[in-house]
Design goal:
Blueprint: E1 2-3, E2 9-11, H1 14-21, H2 24-36, H3 38-46, H4 50-77, H5 84-104, H6 112-139, H7 144-167, H8 181-205, E3 209-211, H9 220-228, H10 231-252, H11 254-261, H12 268-290, H13 295-313, H14 323-360, H15 365-393, H16 405-431, H17 437-449, E4 454-456
Antiparallel strand pairs: 1-2, 3-4
Helix pairs in contact: 1-7, 2-7, 2-8, 4-6, 4-15, 5-6, 5-8, 6-14, 6-15, 7-12, 7-14, 10-14, 10-15, 10-16, 11-16, 12-14, 13-14, 13-16, 14-15, 14-17, 15-16
Length: 461
């Protein structure tokens, strides 16, 4: 890792960058099916009602939101003890491996209580891994653009996990090409065999980065007050939340648009394939743009691009000539724009934590990461519920063609109009974001002068 003249680490070497980002692949491979595939499989095999599954998932969301903030505070409070971020991260990885077979390879007598118990345990393990890993990525450098580079590297592995998930059911030794518990067993073994050694290598070889000085213990209440007083962070959260709502309301009814309304359900494989390709290209484009423009400007431009894509989706009808081609083109562009928005908050949150450190002298990196994580999860749940509520109020039902005009209007409001509005608002809110590269350099220099940005020179914390 090279350093700036002030002594703060600026750039990870490529081998260390790849090693640090690599745990993203097995973790996101594991978490990908958690809310989208696993509940449906449990419901089908063990005759668990969808209402019961919905209640379990809602309780997990509530539990997970509180857990995010609690883990964030705890890992900040133990920053200088027991190995800091690295020990939390490693513990989360090992806890994950300890519970994945119980959740992804259930016994023949599993029921709703079994699913609820192991889903809660798994989400606890994932959070213990996720929050300190996010805080560690923030602390690897205080450099404005290097944080973007680290986030881009992690996003490449995130996208790769989605492609790998789609390939697992196609393995030659599986009895069918369906995404079922046989495929999930293979997934669990892949994660169990790769996540522990990757995590151990990451802990041993990747530097701990920059951390603040030892400070007096601070309460969770004090942290909330400090975070709430950070107006730039509140603006950032609002923009991130609006973008999250835009994605959630559109995604909640996206399959209804594709399958029930446009009649393109048979093309789902092509849609997933273009998602993987466009997401990978989008990350590459983001990497190019972030070297040349401010992060918040790239965020705003991507949000505006997403809004325009929903305008492109809106006129499509079942009888539109070449409707599949037009749908894939709009979807390709939307994925490229949204993958940028999906990754940028992680690249920006550290800059806001640096500003808090300058003002208060207390390092709260993990707490900032945890609050951002909570907001993103909350907006996903709110957006999904809001979208489905609007559709139901207009009388749209899956596979209910021919549809009344009112039902189609309701679907298009949820699928296109609402996402358009949310993304446009997100672009407007983030456009005037106050933490620019120049201002962040001033914050960094002041923290260095005050002794609040200390380089960890050892390879292992």
């Amino acid at each position: 890792m090279s350093t700036s003249p002030s002594g703060s680490p600026k750039r990870l070497s490529w081998p260390l960058l790849v090693l640090f980002a690599l745990p993203t692949l097995p973790m996101y491979l594991l978490r990908g099916p958690a809310f989208s595939i696993l509940p449906a499989l449990y419901s089908e095999r063990f005759s668990i009602s969808l209402g019961t599954m919905a209640a379990v998932l809602l309780l997990v969301r509530v539990f997970d939101g509180a857990l995010d903030v609690g883990i964030g505070w705890a890992t900040d409070a133990t920053r200088h003890r027991w190995g800091g971020r690295k020990s939390w991260f490693l513990a989360g990885s090992l806890l994950t491996v300890a519970c994945i077979f119980q959740l992804y390879v259930p016994p023949a007598n599993a029921d709703a209580m079994y699913f609820a118990l192991w889903f809660f345990i798994a989400y606890f393990a994932w959070t213990v891994n996720e929050i300190p890993y996010g805080a560690w990525s923030v602390e690897l450098t205080t450099d404005y653009r290097e944080r973007s580079r680290i986030t881009v590297a992690r996003q490449y592995f995130n996208v790769a996990s989605g492609a790998l998930l789609g390939l697992i059911p196609l393995l030659w030794f599986l009895p069918t090409s369906d995404m079922n518990f046989d495929a999930l067993r293979v997934l669990a073994w892949m994660v169990a065999l790769t996540l522990p050694p990757i995590s151990v290598l990451c802990v041993i070889c990747v530097p701990a980065g920059v951390h603040g000085p030892r400070t007096q213990r601070h309460s969770l209440v004090d942290s909330f007050k400090a975070i709430r007083a950070n107006k730039a962070f509140i603006r950032f959260l609002v923009a991130s939340g609006l973008a999250g709502l835009g994605d959630a309301v559109g995604a909640a009814v996206g399959f209804l648009v594709l399958d029930s309304y446009l009649g393109l359900g048979a093309a789902i494989g092509m849609v997933l394939l273009q998602w993987g390709v466009s997401a990978m290209i989008g990350v590459g484009v983001a990497e190019f743009l972030l070297k040349r423009f401010e992060k918040h400007k790239v965020f705003a431009g991507s949000a505006f691009g997403c809004a325009l894509c929903y305008m492109g989706f809106a006129p499509l009808q079942p009888d539109t000539p070449h409707v599949l081609v037009l749908y894939l083109l709009c979807s390709f562009a939307h994925t490229m724009f949204y993958i940028v928005i999906d990754m940028l908050p992680q690249a920006m949150v550290g800059d806001l934590a640096d500003f808090d450190l300058m003002k208060s002298g207390v390092q709260r990196n993990a707490q900032y990461v945890s609050v951002l994580t909570f907001v993103r999860k909350a907006t996903f749940g709110i957006g999904t519920s809001l979208s489905l509520l609007v559709v139901s109020q207009f009388g749209f039902e899956a596979k209910g063609a021919p549809y009344a005009t009112a039902a189609i209007v309701g679907l298009k409001i949820s699928a296109f109009a609402m996402p358009f509005c949310f993304f446009m608002l997100a672009a407007l809110v983030i456009w005037a974001f106050p933490i620019t590269a120049r201002r962040h350099a001033v914050i960094q220099q002041r923290n260095a002068r005050l002794g609040r940005a200390i380089v960890e020179s050892r390879l292992a914390a």
